[in-house]
Design brief:
Elements: H1 2-18, H2 50-59, E1 65-69, E2 74-77, E3 88-96, E4 106-115, E5 121-124, H3 128-150
Antiparallel strand pairs: 1-2, 2-3, 3-4, 4-5
């Protein structure tokens, strides 16, 4: 069962991240309603900025993905243990808050735990700059994707 879940999750993320799975779905007219032209500043297909979405998935691809909600703009990552520091682990959540490519449209939260001498994981403070560094890395990648798409 774990393999099927991983395959489905991977395929879903790949399709959504590439824009294939949902392209154009939001432009379908409702029954009895009139079709409105899409706004130029809103990307069709997902509820958040596509560049921030794809950049978030790319930047944090080293962490195990738990859930990704392209309409709500929430990406949850599971615990990641760096092999060089096996007694600490990190978990992250990315919130994409807008359809525009803006710095205030992105929020990253990180949780850290350390393993004690008894083998139990306990909460630990995250370095103050960690979340800001991740946000800046995602924003930089999103801008690069935007520029690559414009040219």
């Amino acid at each position: 069962m774990g393999l099927n879940k991983a395959l489905v999750r991977g395929a879903t993320v790949a399709l959504v991240a590439s824009g294939v799975a949902l392209a154009g779905c939001s432009s379908l007219p409702f029954v009895g309603g009139e079709r409105r032209a899409p706004r130029a500043d809103v990307q069709q297909g997902i509820g958040v900025n596509g560049y921030l979405w794809r950049a978030s998935l790319d930047t944090l691809s080293f962490m195990p993905l738990v859930t990704a909600d392209p309409w709500g703009g929430v990406i949850n990552y599971d615990w990641y243990i760096n092999p060089q520091t096996p007694n600490e682990r990190f978990k992250a959540t990315v919130f994409i808050l807008d359809t525009r490519l803006r710095a205030d449209a992105l929020n990253v939260t990180v949780v850290k735990e350390v393993r004690g001498a008894d083998g139990q994981w306990t909460g630990a403070p995250v370095a103050a700059q960690t979340e800001a560094d991740l946000e800046n890395a995602i924003l930089t990648k999103a801008r690069q994707l935007n520029l690559a798409n414009a040219g």
